[in-house]
Amino acid sequence: MAKKRDFYEVLGVNRDASDEDIKKSYRKLAMKHHPDRNPDNPKSEELFKEAKEAYEILTDPKKRAAYDQYGHAGVDPQAGAGGAGMGGFADAFGDIFGDIFGQGRGGQGGRSNVFRGADLRYNLEVSLEDAARGTQTRIKIPTMSECEPCKGTGAKKGSEPKTCPTCAGHGQVRMQQGFFSIQQTCPKCHGTGRYIPDPCNSCHGTGRIKDHKTLSVKIPSGIDEGDRIRLTGEGEAGVNGGPSGDLYVQVHLKPHSVFKRDHDDLHCEMPISISTAALGGEIEIPTLEGVARLKIPAETQTGKVFRLRGKGIKGIRSVAPGDLMCHVVVETPVKLTERQRELLTEFEEISKGNTKLHNPRAQGWLDRVKEFFST
To answer: Please, what is the end-to-end C-alpha distance for the chain in angstroms?
Structure first.
């Protein structure tokens, strides 16, 4: 069975997102993946159902609180039903034979009440220059931290959690159904084996509080769109002394005014005048390292691509930098003066007599048009 994705990740929101942010994100995903809009796409239907489930959990305050504390297990209706398949069947028979031979699960032998903290994701926008050269930045993230007054126990100072009287600390209760003894999660302690008679005023018994922390993140040179940086142990605090989760920093490149990145290569448009395209010349080209000069040969056409080797970006896993691809766009002059109009008109007149020589592409297109209409 495929592992369920984090509900916050499914909807593309942070863990402290408001109900309104969650609703907006869900509406956008529902419109995109609704089965009526994608009748022949089973993947879209799966994404729609996944988003719907995440929305229903995160917009219900009680379910969201349970999910924030226990993850998917906190909102899974099957989580306390003795497991699925052979595990639940074996547990049932284990209880029966344990009772017969006096070998029941005494003490704290039930379910563990120590949980690892949830992983977090942070979306970080990085400029193209910083992605190419690498940098260091500071981020502020929302998180769940261990409650300081109760030291994560959930109990008010001077008190402590007690063994659950309903399940005697097992975390599970048994229901007799004929010959079989079926185990279920204890409804009082929710499987922890303990309950808190006098909850902490700060965390209300959860052992954790909403918090913010500032972290320093090193952005390695060459990082690209969609790459993730893992900060071990910087996720949410664990429950009852459990280890903290991890923080994944998801990198997104900001749009650049000049360049577009394609893995290690960079692309840019290079407008040139009609005279430069026809007669040739030399122009300056911006690169991430400064200005480079590029020779334009005579009779250059729109769409011609010039490659500047090694002027791209050296990716994280690359041994050499990519190239800079300059795409020529011959620009038609605008707001002409009277003298410019006269010269262009004169140029047009003297060129008409020899179109095949001066405008071979235009002449070739006209020939194909004539052949099309003559067939």
So the answer is: 62
CATH fold of 260-332: HSP40/DNAj peptide-binding domain (2.60.260)
Amino acid at 128: L
Distance of alpha carbon 359 from the chain centroid: 51
Fold equal for 114-147+206-255 and 260-332: yes
Are residues 302 and 361 in contact, defined by beta-carbon separation less than 8 angstroms? Answer: no
Which residues face 247 on adjacent strands? 120, 231
What are the φ/ψ torsions at residue 76 (nearest 5 degrees)?
-85, 115
Mind listing the pLDDT tens digit for each residue in 49-80? 888 898 988 888 888 888 887 777 777 765 44
Q: Give yes or no for a contact between 236 and 120, defined as CB atoms under 8 angstroms apart.
A: yes
Q: What radius of gyration do the chain's Cα atoms show? A: 33
Q: How far apart are CA 303 and CA 366, in angstroms?
A: 20
Average pLDDT score over residue span 199-223 = 85
What ranges do the domains of the chain cover?
Answer: 114-147+206-255, 260-332
Question: Mean pLDDT, to the nearest integer, of 286-301?
Answer: 91
20: which DSSP letter?
Answer: H
pTM of the model: 0.55
- Sheet of strand 120-126, all strands in order from the earlier edge strand to the far edge: 120-126, 247-253, 228-231
Q: How far is CA 74 from CA 62, 68, 116, 260, 316, in A?
A: 10, 8, 13, 44, 39
- Give pLDDT tens digits for 28-47: 888 888 877 787 788 888 88
pLDDT over 80 (residue 344): yes
Sign of CA dihedral 196, 201, 206, 208: negative
State the Cα–Cα distance between residues 42 and 4, nearest whole angstrom.
17
Fold category of 114-147+206-255 in CATH: HSP40/DNAj peptide-binding domain (2.60.260)
- Stated as kind and residue range, the H or E segment containing 8 is helix 7-11
What is the β-pairing status of strands 162-163 and 194-195?
Answer: antiparallel
